[in-house]
Amino acid sequence: MYRKLLLASALLMLAPAAFAAGNCSVDLEGNDQMRFNLSSITVPSSCQQFTINLKHVGTMAKTVMGHNVIVAKTSDMRGIETDGIRAGLAADYVKAGDTRVVVHSRVIGGGETASVTFPVAKITSGGPYSFFCSFPGHAALMKGTITVQ
Ligand code: ZN
After folding, report:
1. How many angstroms does the Cα of residue 82 sit away from the middle of ligand 1?
2. 135 CA distance to ligand 1 centroid (A)?
3. From CA 31, how far away is CA 62, in angstroms rounded?
4. What pTM value is reported for the model?
5. Separation of CA 18 and ligand 1 centre (Å)
6. Tens digits of residue pLDDT in 93-140
7. How many CB atoms lie within 10 A of CB 101?
8. Whole-angstrom Cα distance, residue 135 to residue 67?
9. What is the CA(69)–ligand 1 centre distance, in A?
10. How far is the CA of 31 from the centre of ligand 1 (A)?
């Protein structure tokens, strides 16, 4: 647990330095009330890569109130969620090799963090795109739009 936190902190410190050009990252919080603090994310078109820094600001365990973040076409959300629930927590509620998924983080519990980075080119066409949590039942509330501008 302590080692995991250290690693997450190290990653968080690296991220701003690696993507210092422009604002190519966002801090996204999930809480014990099954909510994200953002309902939309805007990705500057000047970014080559974009990073989402997910933080679980609650205290509940990932087995009962776990959160992840997935980026995908809005029209694919339901299918990804259904297959993810079948895959289970050990697979971070994402079907192995799901090509509909642009990027996904692992599932984290209270106090943990997880960062994911993806090429912006992956969401510039074929949208609209969304971000959401695929923990069973969470996507109904934990979702938002992600657009490149
Ligand atoms: Zn969640």
Report:
1. 14
2. 5
3. 11
4. 0.85
5. 27
6. 999 999 999 999 999 999 999 999 999 999 999 999 999 999 999 999
7. 19
8. 6
9. 8
10. 8
Q: How far is CA 8 from CA 22, 116, 118, 131, in A?
A: 23, 11, 18, 21
* Confidence label for 77 from pLDDT (cuts 50, 70 and 90): very high
CA of 108 to the centre of ligand 1 (A): 9
Residues ≥6 apart with Cβ < 8 Å to 116: 51, 52, 54, 69, 103, 104, 105
Using the mean position of ligand 1's atoms as its centre, give its distance from the Cα of residue 21 in Å: 30
CATH fold of 23-148, please? Immunoglobulin-like (2.60.40)
What are the extents of the domains in the chain?
A: 23-148
CA of 95 to the centre of ligand 1 (A): 16
Using pLDDT thresholds of 50, 70 and 90, give the confidence band for residue 18: very low
Centroid of ligand 1 to alpha carbon of 15 (angstroms): 23
Q: Is the pLDDT of residue 12 over 70?
A: no
Q: What is the DSSP string of 48-107?
A: SEEEEEEEE-S-S-HHHH-B--EEEEGGGHHHHHHHHHHH-GGGTTS-TT-TTEEEEPPP
